[in-house]
Amino acid sequence: MKKTSADVLPGLSEGGAPGDHPLLAVDNLHVEFQTRAGVVRAVNGVSYTVGPGETLAVLGESGSGKSVTAQAIMGILDMPPAVIPKGEIRFKGTNLLKLSEEARTQVRGQRIAMIFQDALSALNPVFTVGWQISEMFRVHRGMSKADGLKKAIELMDRVRIPAARQRVHDYPHQFSGGMRQRIMIAMSIALDPEVLIADEPTTALDVTVQAQIMELLAELQRESRMGLILITHDLGVVADVADKIAVMYAGRIVENAPVHDIYKGPAHPYTKGLLESIPRVDLKGHELYAIKGLPPNLLDLPTGCAFHPRCPYRQDNCVTDAPPLHEVSGTRNSACHYWREVLDGEHQ
Amino acid sequence: MASTSERILEVRDLVKHFPLTQGIVVKRQIGAIKAVDGVSFDLHKGETLGIVGESGCGKSTLAKVLMALERPTSGSVKINGRDIAHAKGGELKRMRRNIQMVMQDPYTSLNPRMTVGDIIGEPYEIHTEVAPKGDRRTKVQELLEVVGLNPDHINRYPHQFSGGQRQRIGIARGLALQPEIIVCDEPVSALDVSIQAQVINLLERLQNEFDLAYIFIAHDLSVVRHISDRVGVMYLGKFVELGKDTEIYDRPAHPYTQALLSAVPVPDPDGREQRERIILQGDPPSPANPPSGCRFRTRCWKAQEICAEEEPLLQIRPGTAHESACHFAETHDVVHVG
C-alpha cells in the first residue's frame, strides 16, 4: 500500500492546517556551492512567506539566487556541491530541511509542485506526454496505467489542450512551446498541490502565448486557492498578477512589499533603477535610465551592501556596513541605509 | 524626419520559401515553408524600422535574406539602388560592407578561441581595403572605445566578459566596416534587465554619431517602441501593418496588432482588473499551409466570409493614416505599452 503524506507528516494531515503557521515560510535561508574556484554564496539569508491563494513574485536578475531558493524549497538541489548551512523552510510549520528523504518525496510534487522555464528540456523526449503526466498518479497514488491515462486526459482538458484524447499519445516535440508549457502545468497541478512554484514560466514564450499561460495559472489558482511563487525578471508580468513582491539582489532580498507600494514608490535604489530602466512612452527620444556597472560576482561579493558599487545613493557606510532589512511599514521592508531618501525620490 | 532623407534600402515583394521534400533517393518537393511571403518596405538613412511578431512569423528569415545570407525565392533587396539579392562575386562582397548584423545571443555568436581584437578585426581580413594591416590594431582599439569598452582589453577572450560587454563586442564588429545599415536581430533579449537599457542607449548613441539605419527585430514591444521611427508587424511571413511608431502603438488598425499590444503586460498594477485584454486562442497556423485569404482569420474575432476568399492587401484604409492589411481595419485604442 502506498503511504499517504499524513503517515509521514503527522502535523500535515489533510485539511487540518495547524493554527498560526503560514502555508510556506522561508526563514533566513542560506545556500552555498562548493566549487573549485571557491565558495559561491548564492543565497544569503532569504526570508519570505506565501499564504493560500496568494501570489508572491520573486523578482531578480540571473544570479540573484531566486531559482536556487526555489530549488531548495523543492529539495532538488544537488547536494553536494550545494550546502544549506543555515535557515529553515517551513511548510505549515514543519521544517522541510529536517525531514527524511522519504518524507520529502511525499511533499515534493504532492504538496509543493514546480513549473520549470524550459518545458522542452524539462520533459522527457522519449516518453509520451500522457505517460509523463500519468506518472504522477502511478508513483504517488499507485494508480494503474489505464486509470492514470484517463486522469492525464482530464488534466490536459483542464489546461485546455485541444483534442486531449488524441494528443495524450504524442511526444513533447510534437507540441508548440505554449502547449508544452501547458503540459508542464498539467503535471504540476496533477496532485492538487497547496504551493506552486513557477520558475520563469513564460520567459521563452511570445507575449500572446504568455498572456494565455498567465490567465490559465490565475484561473487554476482561483479554483484551488494554491499559494503561487512566481519567479521572474519581467516587471510587467509582476504588475499584472502579483499580490506581493520580493526583489532579490546577490542572494538577498533587498525589498519586499505589496505590489502597489513598489510601483508607486520603490524604497530600494535597485528596485528604483529597474523600474526606471523600462522604456516608457514619455521617455521616447531620451536616453533610458541605466543602472551602471555589472551584476556582482558571487564568488567575491562587494563588502557592506552588495549593491554599493552600482548605487547612486552610496555613502561611506554602505561600503563597510551591510544594511539590515529595515521596516518601512508594517508590510514592507527595504535593505538600504537610505531607504527614506529613496522613497522620497531625492536624488543624491 | 525620415521621409525627407535619402532612401538606402528598398525591399520589394520579397519571398523566401524553403522546400519541403519527401523521399531519400529521389527527392520530390511536396510543399514549401512560406517563411517570408511578399514583404515590401523602404528604409531611409538614419532611420530605425522595428519589426515585431511572434516566433515563426519570419522575422529572422527576413533578416537573413536582407543580409544576403539566404537567396530569396523572388523579389529584390536594393541597397542604394543596387540589388544585393542577385549580386555575385566581387560586387556582392562590396555591397555586404554596407549592411552588417548584430546577433541575438552574445554567448554563441563570438568564437571562444579568438581574442576580442581578432573578432572585431576579422571583417578587415575580408575587406582589406578598409584598413591596411598596420592600422588594424588602432582601428579595433578605437572601436572598443566607441562601444564603451576598455581598449586595453583587446587581447582578452570572450569568456572574460559579461553578457552586456559581449553584446558590445558584437556591436563593435558590426561597426567595423562602417556600414550604413545594421540589422539587429533581438539584440537585447538575452541580456539582464539592468543591462538592456545600457545596450539600447549605446545603439541610439551610435545611430546619432554615425547616421546609421537600423532594422530592429525584437519581440519586446516596449523596447521596439522606444527605439523605432517606424514599426512593421509581421504575421506568417507578411506585414499586416506598417507605419510610424505613434500610429502603430496609439492607433493600431489591424486586429492582430491590437491583440499583440493588449497582451503586453503593463508595468503598473493600478487598474489591472479593468484592463482590456484580447487573448488570442491557439497558436499561429503552420507557414507550410497558411489559411486562404487573410492569414490571421483563423484567430480573428472579426473574420467574415470575405476574409477567407480575398486576401487583404497592405494599404492605407479609410479612417487610418497608415498601411494595414485587414478588410475591417478600424483604429482602436488598446492598452498602452510602457
UniProtKB/TrEMBL annotation, chain A:
A GO biological-process term: peptide transport
Q: Report the GO terms under cellular component.
A: plasma membrane
Subcellular location, record wording: Cell membrane
**Predominant location of this chain?**
membrane
Start and end residues of each ABC transporter domain: 24-275
An annotated Gene Ontology molecular function: ATP hydrolysis activity
What's the protein's topology in the membrane? Peripheral membrane protein
Enumerate the SMART domains for this protein: AAA
Keywords annotated in UniProt: ATP-binding, Cell membrane, Membrane, Nucleotide-binding, Transport
Q: Which PANTHER family match?
A: DIPEPTIDE TRANSPORT ATP-BINDING PROTEIN DPPD (PTHR43297:SF2), OLIGOPEPTIDE TRANSPORT ATP-BINDING PROTEIN APPD (PTHR43297)
Entries under NCBIfam families matching the protein: oligo_HPY
Name of this chain's protein: ABC transporter ATP-binding protein
Species annotation = Nonomuraea longispora
- List the top taxonomic levels of the source: Bacteria, Bacillati, Actinomycetota, Actinomycetes, Streptosporangiales
Automatic annotation (TrEMBL), chain B:
Question: What GO biological process terms does the UniProt entry carry, in alphabetical order?
Answer: peptide transport; transmembrane transport
Domain ABC transporter: residue ranges: 9-261
Q: Which family does it belong to?
A: Belongs to the ABC transporter superfamily.
A Pfam family: oligo_HPY
UniProt keyword list: ATP-binding, Nucleotide-binding, Transport
Could you tell me which SMART domains the record lists for this protein?
AAA (SM00382)
Query: What protein am I looking at?
Result: Dipeptide ABC transporter ATP-binding protein
Source species, please?
Nonomuraea longispora
* GO MF, one annotated term: ATP binding
Keyword field contains RNA-binding: no
PROSITE patterns reported in the protein's UniProt record: ABC_TRANSPORTER_1, ABC_TRANSPORTER_2
Domain of life according to the entry: Bacteria
Q: Which CDD domains match?
A: ABC_NikE_OppD_transporters
